[in-house]
């Protein structure tokens, strides 16, 4: 049995084959067998100061952010630990004490 390549998106080693596609069970990324050899462009996430962000970083909020559906807001200086970077308009997925799971834009945080 040949070893399957790791996921090009999250580097998980638990990929499996389904028909002509390779699938990652951790991030749900799907790609064809021929795509693994091509150079994949990865998006670089930067904070408000231009520092490169990575999964697991700790960041601080630099602006009061209103929370939809409530009258409260995330205050300046709130520390957010163990962020996860995702594709989309709001590119940080995290949990904030007192608010729960939230999505933030990287332009409103700075790396600690």
UniProtKB/TrEMBL annotation:
Protein YjdM C-terminal domain span: 46-112
Q: Name one Pfam family in it.
A: Zn_Ribbon_YjdM
Pinpoint the Protein YjdM N-terminal domain residues: 4-32
UniProt similarity note: Belongs to the YjdM family.
- Spell out the protein name for this chain: Alkylphosphonate utilization protein
Organism field: Cellvibrio zantedeschiae
């Amino acid at each position: 049995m040949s070893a399957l390549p790791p996921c090009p998106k999250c580097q998980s080693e638990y990929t499996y084959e389904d028909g002509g596609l390779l699938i990652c069970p951790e991030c749900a990324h799907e790609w064809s067998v021929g795509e693994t050899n091509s150079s994949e462009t990865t998006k670089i996430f930067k904070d408000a100061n231009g520092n490169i962000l990575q999964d697991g970083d700790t960041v601080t909020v630099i602006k009061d952010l209103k929370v939809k559906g409530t009258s409260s807001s995330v205050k300046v200086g709130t520390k957010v630990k163990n962020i996860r970077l995702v594709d989309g308009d709001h590119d940080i997925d995290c949990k904030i004490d007192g608010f729960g799971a939230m999505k933030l834009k990287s332009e409103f945080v700075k790396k600690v």
